[in-house]
Amino acid sequence: MPYLLVYLFINTTVFGQSMLQYNLSIGDVFTIKQDANQIITQEIDGATHEITNTLMGIIEFKVKGDNANTYNIDVMFKDLNLKMISSIQGELMNVSAKIYEENDPQSKIFNSLLDVPIHVILSRTGDILEVNGGDSLVSKMAEASGLEDEFSINMMKKSLEKEFGSEALSNSYKQMTFLYPASPVRAGDSWKNEYSGKLLAQNTWTLNEISETSANIEGKAIVVMDVIEPASRMQLNGTQNSSVITDIITGFVKKMTVQGQVEGSTTMTQMGNQEIPTVIKSTIIYELIEN
After folding, report:
1. 8 Å CB contact between 251 and 20
2. For the segment 70-119, what is each residue's pLDDT rounded down to a tens digit?
3. What is the pLDDT of residue 288?
4. E strands, 87-164, where?
5. Of all residues in the chain, what percent carry a pLDDT higher than 70?
6. CA atoms within 13 A on the CB side of 257
7. What CA–CA distance (Å, rounded) separates 69 from 36?
């Protein structure tokens, strides 16, 4: 066997083990479709209130730089559709970012986030080390709302930061990217990692199967939600299960399904901090779209 092939073989496979990681090249573009469904159920004085949130997003990842242990990646929304339905109040939100309506503030806000690059530094294990640009995106969205007084604009920014600020986006992307161990593994091996934010997840990953083209990974997590708002606090605990198929060459996700359930309570100051039993069930599917 020629020396170069021997080196490559030893470098990628150690006694039957494989090094799972991102192997990206400058100019690579990956387009991910995200479908999410979330059902929030609350019991208030014997009555049940259910809110159903659905989201469909198209997110593009473009590799801009390749460093020794990290990649510089531009991430942008190409589409985003949101719908929120209350079992009591009916439809609360229904917006498609691609459809611009001059007289609809929500339409203008979400249209403004399309094609705006967020700059991400990604480690080879998938940990997101830094995100830049989220704050600029939030400012652009707030300005698109049409609000004119500074107080209202600042309040809008604080609200948007919870979903589209740099820290929020970093924690959101990690759910899809932070999959890999720091050391070589073989089928049956497990490893741990965690990410935080509105959702703290302590993950245990297991490599179920590996082939020449893909890796099949299973994840189980203990999750904690502690969401503090000006007039309420939601404290929930539960579990999350992930099923992942990744490309063995690039390391990028081909398909990932995340199912979770958390339970606990919500307290609201206007109700004298009464504890409201709360359950959230969610399913998120990420799928690679072939460019």
Report:
1. yes
2. 999 999 999 999 999 999 999 999 999 999 888 888 889 999 999 999 99
3. 97
4. 90-96, 118-123, 128-132
5. 94
6. 4
7. 31
Angle at 145 between CA 139 and CA 149, to 5 degrees: 80
CB neighbour list of residue 139: distance below 8 Å, 6 or more residues apart: 157
- The full set of domains in the chain, from first to last, is 3-289 (2.30.230.10)
pTM > 0.85: yes
- Residue 235, exposed/middle/buried by CB under 10 A (0-12, 13-18, 19+)? middle
pLDDT of res. 198:
78
Please report the pLDDT score of residue 104 as a whole number. Answer: 86
Quote the CA–CA distance of 134 and 117 in Å, as a whole number. Answer: 9
Q: Are 257 and 2 contacting, i.e. CB atoms less than 8 angstroms apart?
A: no
User: CB neighbours (10 Å) of residue 164?
Assistant: 23
- Six-digit token string for 8: 């490559």
